[in-house]
Design brief:
Blueprint: E1 10-14, E2 17-19, E3 26-28, H1 30-40, E4 46-52, H2 56-62, E5 68-73, H3 81-89, E6 93-99, H4 111-119, E7 123-124, E8 127-133, E9 136-143, E10 147-153, E11 157-161, H5 173-178, E12 182-183, H6 232-245, H7 253-264
Parallel strand pairs: 1-4, 1-6, 4-5, 5-12, 6-11, 7-11
Antiparallel strand pairs: 2-3, 8-9, 9-10
Length: 267
């Protein structure tokens, strides 16, 4: 079970298979590779874990300096969360690193959040640096507008790494070819205290809602404003205005008047 960070502990990186957006060839996922680079910068041993089938991409990960790579066999399309949670429960780790989004499959970015919830540990998103500061860690988090925030933690946590454009370590192909992937038995958490409940019913498919453009770590987009310490009424006004601009809700004349009055400070 995860305990307080110490120099004798290891770091875990969740790995997925990536895909080149131009050629379509399988490769290391850039966010996962960046996670390995960030984890190795701490000086602690780093173990990678993947739920799926053997692939060339997994072998290439070993060339990034992993102490070991654990493969938990699983069928294509199978939910990796129960197996990952069951495996992590048997490990002693300081931190779990994960890319913020996969390059293949659904790419929802929910896996790290589900794992953190199942293990009962915090999740910190958009991490750009992690440093051991006994008896815990100093974590640097990227914020919109190019800002940075430092956080201190003294317990195990899940960290998500974006950094798809950040530098990563070069793959040592000779090491990757010589290294071996450790294959463990399939974890099947079928006990009554199952970590992640399975959906055992079917329902008709529904039309998916339109996605809102994701917020990047770069500068604030043109036409947008960054509000610091707004009042609850100002915050609600800006949220409603954003939903209207995105055509996610339809505003009545009365609502538009209320927003105007909130901007003028008359409410």
């Amino acid at each position: 079970m995860a305990v307080l960070a110490s120099s004798s502990q290891q770091l875990v990186v969740l790995l997925s298979s990536g895909r080149n957006p131009v050629s379509g060839r399988e490769r290391c996922a850039r966010r996962d590779a960046r996670s390995i680079t960030l984890a190795r910068s701490t000086g602690l041993p780093v173990i990678g874990v993947h739920v799926g089938q053997p692939s060339a991409a997994l072998q290439a990960y070993l060339g990034l300096g992993l102490a070991d790579l654990v493969l938990i066999p699983s069928a294509a399309g199978e939910d990796p969360v129960p197996a990952l949670c069951a495996w992590l429960k048997e490990q002693t780790f300081a931190l779990v690193f994960a890319g913020s989004q996969a390059e293949t499959g659904d790419g929802s970015g929910l896996v790290p959040y589900l794992i953190a919830k199942a293990l009962g540990i915090p999740l910190l998103p958009n991490i750009v640096d992690a440093t051991v500061v006994p008896p815990g860690w100093r974590i640097t988090q990227a914020l919109p507008g190019g800002r940075r925030r430092q956080l201190g933690i003294k317990t195990a946590a899940v960290l998500t790494v974006d950094g798809s454009t950040e530098s990563i370590d070069q793959i040592a192909k000779a090491i990757a070819l010589r290294a071996k992937v450790s294959i463990v038995q399939t974890y099947d958490d079928t006990r009554g205290d199952s970590l992640v409940p399975l959906i055992d019913r079917e329902c008709p498919a529904k039309r998916l809602p339109r996605r809102i453009s994701p917020v990047t770590m770069g500068s604030v987009s043109a036409g947008q404003q960054l509000h610091e310490r707004p009042t609850p009424r100002q915050a609600a006004s800006q949220i409603l205005r954003f939903l209207i601009e995105q055509q996610l809700i339809t505003a009545s004349d009365k609502l538009k008047m209320s927003l105007t009055e909130a901007d003028d400070g008359s409410l």
